[in-house]
Amino acid sequence: MDKNTLKPVLSIDNLKTHFFSRKGVARAVDGVSFDLTPGEVTGIVGESGCGKSVTALSVMGLVPNPPGRVVDGKILFHQKNLLDLNIKELRKIRGAGIAMIFQEPMTSLNPVYTIGNQISEMFRLHKGYNKKQALDAAVDMLDRVQIPSPHKRVHEFPHQLSGGMRQRAMIAMAMSCDPEILIADEPTTALDVTVQAQILDLMHRLKDEFSTAIQLITHDLGVIAEMADQVVVMYAGQVVEQAGTRELFQHTLHPYTRGLLASIPVLGHRTRGMDEDLTEIKGMIPSLYDLPAGCRFSNRCPQVMDKCKTHLPELTEMGGGHRVRCWLHTKGTTL
Amino acid sequence: MVLLAVSFICFLIFRFTGDPVLMLAGKYATQQEREQVRIAYGLDRPFYVQYANFLGNALKGNFGKSYISQVDALDTILERFPATFELALTAIFISLAAGVLLGVVVSIKPGSLVSRAIMAGSLGGISIPTFLMGILWVMLFAVYLEWLPPFGRGETVQIGPWRTGFLTLDGIKHIIMPALTLSGYQLAVILRLTRAGMREVLSEEYIKTAWSKGLSPFTVIVKHALRNVLIPVVTIAGLSFGELIAFSIVTESIFQWPGMGNLLLVSIFETDHPVIVTYIMMAAFIILAINILVDLLYAWLNPKIQYN
Fold first, then answer.
1. Res A334: pLDDT
2. Which residues of chain A have pLDDT under 70?
3. Is A111 part of the contact surface with chain B (CB cutoff 8 Å)?
């Protein structure tokens, strides 16, 4: 699909979500911008605590408040800024226009209701179906996510299903009202590898079927390589690199992204004596309360320069939609 | 098994707590008269014979006759049972309804002034002893405001073997204060339990899911959160219901409520062993029965548990 011909369905523009606590202000999301395009998968990558999930929650309007609050920016969904909507208008979009699935299928389904009940809730709420219609629609959805004997499964409770089944049920629920955007927050992290592949396959198929824009949050670059059309790499609340998937893997620019790629274990390396240890990015992600003055990666960067420690680089377009936030690549500085 | 143990222990205890013969024969009886009484009631026989007799009769539903009124002990207690049961039922209803409601309010807006007032009140509910609370209610509603009658059960209606106070306005007026008094402690406990449960459940992943579906706050809180919180709350409420029935003694004596607790108190003063023993057996039976009911209810609320 040609990216330029399709209008983005969701544009996040300079989003800032901060958490206010006694320790100070944690800038969990600090000026993040990217677009989601129909039928495309946008991968958001980064370590835990880099602001991936908070970005997603900001889109849904589900940032726990207090202590969190979106302080600046725009989230445009069909030219409407979601941040300006009141709670009633937002609720109509949640589930129907933008749906979300979570990491842990074990805990993201309510243990005391059957999955049929939880899926039909979507149809009753957003489509006004009655009980019978909604349950039939739920059976239909379970069938679409390839759950065997959906007529029987629809009356079962989450604990009666396996992890993979639960995630399928969760996807069925999220996709039930044909949302334009699906936000998947680490949807396969908690699953077995073989099940992971099945779930990713399923998401891929549904995406084409419904031409949904998927925002896939993960820390697994393997999943990204498999699924994503474009990738947004986040570090400490900011986008550090953004490009088409192939471009990113072939012409990695940011030292952080390179570090991430290098820390993927390669099968057979150790047994052939090629690598003594796994490569890692040295040091810890900085506390959001106490960020470095310049580039946020400067305290861990292997190629750090003096300038990096005092001045924060801008996210700079390098051509072909490849953008990077690094002094190594930002020529003609504003200094 | 439990009932057997309870019967043995209370039988044993009453061997050493006062001689009923003194009471039965009267203060001025001669030694000879006392011996006659002792033989007549079988109190001269060895302990194990007495106990075996008691057990044998108890299995047939015969718990002996009250020493004082010469009426069947079980009948005496059962006659008083409706009064106590209605009082306990009203009390548990008040504490469940108000406790859960206030608990939810407190958990949704934890920092607000209303929540803080409720939490302070609940601390009072836990720490003020029942008799003081009862007397305070009487002062407020009966003495100053003169809205509610201070004692008794008021007008009742007899339906078959059951004498109910729920069907007359007078009866309902009479039950309010005792029920409030009896419910005070449970209300505070249930409130705190609900609050703790809600706090935990509201941070669960499936609540995030529920919000992300676009559900209304009411549906999220009542359908998705509260149902999960109710599992432990109902367990506690159910178990305490048994206790309320069995041990509403203090409340009943404050309000001169003609229930089982009041009967027990009188029987203790009069060393009326058959009634006391029967009462304790009844109490054990009620608590056991309610335990079983709670287990069944628990299975119904929590789909992860199934009894075959």
1. 46
2. 1-6, 268-278, 331-335
3. yes
Domain containing A267 equals: 8-97+177-324
SS3 at position B146: coil
Nearest Cα residue in chain B from A122? B213
User: Which of the listed residues A157, A176, A195 is the one where a domain comes to its end?
Assistant: A176
| N-term to C-term CA, chain A | 40
Evaluate whether residue A329 is within a structural domain.
no
Nearest residue, CB atoms, B213 vs list A94, A113, A159: A94
* Cα four-point dihedral sign B282, B283, B289, B292: negative
Give pLDDT, residue A278: 65
According to DSSP, residue A285 is labeled P
Give me the pLDDT at residue B307, please: 58
% of chain B at pLDDT higher than 70: 94
- Taking the domains of chain B in order of start, what are their residue ranges? 2-59, 73-301
Residues A249 and A319 in one domain: yes
Q: Does A134 touch chain B (CB under 8 A)?
A: no
Q: A157 to chain B nearest CA, in Å?
A: 7
The full length of chain A comes to: 335
Is residue A66 located within the same domain as residue A211?
A: yes
Note whether A186 and A244 are same-domain residues: yes
A63 lies in the same domain as A53: yes
Residues ≥6 apart with Cβ < 8 Å to A14: A31, A32, A33, A72, A73, A74
Report yes or no on A330 lying in a domain.
no
Residue A230 phi/psi, 5° resolution? -135, 155
Quick check: is A212 in a domain? yes
Check whether the bond before A66 is cis (ω within 30° of 0): yes
CA neighbours closer than 13 Å in the CB half-sphere of residue A179: 32
A275-289 pLDDT per residue, tens: 556 677 777 777 878
Judge contact between B105 and B117, C-beta under 8 A: no
How far B298 CA lies from chain A's nearest CA (Å)?
12
Residue type, B59: L
Instruction: Return the CATH number at A301.
Output: 3.40.50.300
**pLDDT tens across B157-215, in order?**
888 778 787 888 888 888 888 888 888 888 998 999 999 999 889 888 899 888 888 88
**Alpha helical stretches, state H, chain A:** 52-60, 87-93, 105-108, 115-126, 131-144, 150-153, 163-175, 193-210, 221-227, 245-250, 255-262, 306-310
The answer to whether residues A67 and A208 belong to one domain is yes
CA-CA distance, B263 to B296, in Å (whole number)? 32
| CA A102 – CA B208 distance, rounded (Å) | 9
Chain B positions in Cβ-Cβ contact with residue A96 (cut-off 8 Å): 214
The C-alpha atoms of residue A258 and residue A303 are separated, in whole angstroms, by: 11
The residues that bridge with A34 in the sheet, in sequence order, are A12
In a domain, A333, yes or no: no
According to CATH, the topology of domain B73-301 is MetI-like fold (1.10.3720)
Give the β-pairing of A323-324 and A238-244.
antiparallel
Look at residues A119, A142, A176 and tell me which one is the last residue of a structural domain: A176
A43: helix, coil or strand?
Answer: strand
**Contact assessment for residue A190 and residue A217, using Cβ atoms and an 8 Å cutoff:** no
**Is the domain of A93 the same as that of A201?**
yes
Regarding whether A172 and A77 lie in a shared domain, the answer is no
Minimal C-alpha gap between A51 and chain B (Å)? 17
* C-alpha closest to that of B244 among B296, B190, B286, B297: B286
Instruction: Give chain A's domain count.
Output: 2
Q: Are residues A77 and A182 in the same domain?
A: yes
